[in-house]
Specification:
163 residues, mainly alpha
């Protein structure tokens, strides 16, 4: 599945899926985040289904039980390594989501960003375009050998849920 591709799901479908997976999530926040993902992905030609699934995986469906906390507005674990290096803090949800999408675009494409770069780690992705599809994120975005399989599983559940 190419990262630079058309999405299938809309904001309402993304919101409904996440609320199903985490009924304790703040529904108004989920609606906001879903809309921002759609908008930011459209701006950079990123498939928002993939980006949203990645956010779900990285945040535990917005439960934030790992080293990255909700108030950090870091939806993809940017810079999160351990308890000492627990990730980058973004000033708001939009900036955090934009950074996620820009980082994903750096992996997926050699094309320049369309919006001002807010991803402080964008410059470290080399070469640009080294992971153009979902499968190629394993070993590049994350060391988990099951990373792309986990993302694919979430995307399949999203599509089945939307039927």
């Amino acid at each position: 599945m190419p990262i630079i591709s058309r999405s299938r799901l809309n904001s309402e479908q993304l919101t409904a899926f996440l609320m199903y997976m985490n009924p304790n999530a703040d529904e108004e926040r989920v609606k906001r985040i879903s809309s921002i993902y759609i908008e930011e992905c459209e701006a950079e030609s990123i498939n928002s289904d993939i980006a949203f699934a990645q956010m779900c995986l990285e945040t535990g469906f917005l439960s934030f039980k790992g080293i990255v906390k909700s108030e950090m507005n870091n939806f993809c674990g940017l810079g999160a390594i351990d308890s000492v290096h627990n990730g980058i803090v973004f000033k708001d949800e939009t900036t955090g989501i934009r950074a996620h999408i820009q980082h994903l675009k750096a992996y997926a494409s050699k094309k320049p960003l369309k919006r001002e770069c807010v991803d402080p780690r964008y410059k470290y992705v080399y070469p640009k375009g080294k992971a153009p599809n979902l499968k190629s994120l394993t070993g590049k975005w994350a060391t988990d050998p099951e990373y792309s399989n986990k993302l694919q599983s979430i995307i399949k559940r999203m599509y089945l849920f939307a039927l």
